[in-house]
Amino acid sequence: MATTPVTSPALAGVGRAISETGAWLGKTVLGAASRASQQEVFGLAASNTKILLGFILANLVLTVGLISAPVMAVVFGLGTALQAGVPITSVDRTGEAAALGPGLFLCPVQHPVVTQPFGPTTFVGEPIVNGVPFHTGIDLAVPLGQPIVAASSGTVTFAGGQTNAFGLLVGYGQYVTITDTQGRVELYGHMSRLLASVGQVVQAGQQIGQVGSTGFSSGPHVHFEVRVGGHPVNPAPNLRC
After folding, report:
1. What confidence tier does 189 reach under pLDDT thresholds 50, 70, 90?
2. Fewer CB in 10 Å around end: N or C, the chain?
3. For position 143, what pLDDT does the model report?
4. Are 125 and 162 in contact (CB under 8 A)?
5. Are strands 239-240 and 105-106 parallel, antiparallel or unpaired?
6. How far is CA 231 from CA 162, 186, 234, in A?
7. φ, ψ of residue 121 in degrees (nearest 5)
8. Does the pLDDT at position 106 exceed 90?
9. Which residues contact 240 (CB under 8 A, 6 or more apart)?
10. Could you give the CA distance from residue 117 to residue 134 in angstroms, rounded to a whole number?
C-alpha cells in the first residue's frame, strides 16, 4: 500500500533554518580561513621584501665602497704607493752649506724650478688669509726621488704624514719639520720617503728625505715653508738656490 508523505510547515521552517545556518557558518569559516591565509601570505611577502631590500642595500654599500675607495686613494694618497719603488739616492751637501752666511738657507734640492712662490695664489685648497687663498711656502720642483737636505742645522721635531679620517695622505703628505738653531721652524712637504726621525740633530746639507708628490700635490716637488713665532714667512730672500 503506497503512502503519501505528510508535509508540515513547522518542519519545513526548521529545515530552512538549519540550511541557512549551515550556509552562514560555512561562509564564516571559509572567510576566516581566507583572511588568515591572506595575512600569512602578506606577512611572508613583507618578510621576503625586507630580506631582498637588505640584500640590495648590502650590495649597494659594497659596490660604492669598492668604487669610491680606489678613487679616494688616487685623490688623497696614491702617490705613496707609486713612490714605494723609488730608489734611494743620497747626497751630502754640508760643505756647500758651510759656505753660506749666517741666517741663510741652503736650497733643499738642487736646480729646482719654482712652481709656486710664497704669497697670494689662485690655487684652490690653500688657506684663506685676508680673504684670499695664500700659499704659505715656496714650491721647488725637481724629478721624483731627488734628495732633500736640511736648509739649516737644527733638531727634527716631526717626521710623518698628514692624514684624513680614512688614513689617507692629505695636505703636506709625508713631511718633516726642523727647528733650527735660530728658533725658526722649517717644513719640508710632499716627500716620497722620510730619512729623518723625531729628535734627530741634523746639519745643514744633511739629507732628510726624497722628493715626492704625496698629499695635496700636482707633481713632484718639495714645499719649503718657514715659520717664525708660529707664522709663515717668505723664505725666498734668505734661500740660496
Report:
1. very high
2. N
3. 96
4. no
5. parallel
6. 19, 11, 10
7. -145, 165
8. yes
9. 100, 104, 105, 106, 107
10. 10
Does 172 have pLDDT greater than 50? yes
Tell me the three cell numbers of residue 106: 741652503
Grid cell 733650527 is found at: 180
- In this prediction, residue 164 carries a pLDDT of 95
**How many Å apart are CA 82 and CA 90, to the nearest integer?**
20
B/e letters for 91-130, b = 16+ CB within 10 Å, e = fewer, are: eebbebbeebeeeebbbbbeebeeebebeeeeeeebeeee
Does the pTM of the predicted model rise above 0.85? no
Instruction: State how far the Cα of 177 lies from the Cα of 209, in Å rounded to an integer.
Output: 11
Strand partners, 154: 180, 202
Please name every residue paired with 201 in a beta bridge, in sequence order, or none if there are none: 155
Chain-centre distance of CA 139, in angstroms? 24
- Each residue's pLDDT tens digit, 120-133: 998 877 887 878 88
pLDDT at 129: 81
User: Alpha-carbon distance 171 to 175, whole Å?
Assistant: 10
Distance in Å from the first CA to the final CA of the chain? 142
66: helix, strand or coil: helix
Identify whether the C-beta of residue 208 lies closer than 8 Å to the C-beta of residue 195: yes
**Nearest residue to 107 via CA among 216, 222, 210, 233:** 222
Label residue 138 exposed, middle or buried (CB < 10 Å: 0-12, 13-18, 19+).
buried
